[in-house]
């Protein structure tokens, strides 16, 4: 499910730079984040517990890019960061 909200666009924009929160952002990270965000309803996911958020984001990537996260720890780290930041991001755009 895709939600076209301001927070979706803001989250994607954070990965246009070479660094996010002290972590490097590679092309694979940008792709994984885009796939993950397109696969979820960001507003609804923001109210879930962190484990559910992480799993939903990972599942979205796994569906489109099977096995990718096994080899790309950089992408896994960014998805976890998004999952932890998501409630604040959703609240800021509400």
What's this model, at a glance?
This protein is mainly α. It has helices spanning 6-13, 27-38, 42-45, 50-64, 68-71, 73-93; strands at residues 19-20, 23-24.
Give the SSE map.
Blueprint: H1 6-13, E1 19-20, E2 23-24, H2 27-38, H3 42-45, H4 50-64, H5 68-71, H6 73-93
Describe this structure in words.
There is one protein chain. The chain has about 90 residues and is mainly alpha-helical. Helices cover about 70% and strands about 5% of the residues. It has helices at about 5-15, 25-40, 40-45, 50-65, 70, 75-94; strands at about 20, 25. A two-stranded antiparallel ribbon has the order 1-2. A hairpin with a 2-residue loop joins strand 1 and strand 2 (about 25). The two termini are about 20 Å apart. About 25% of the residues are buried. The model has no long low-confidence stretch (mean pLDDT about 90).
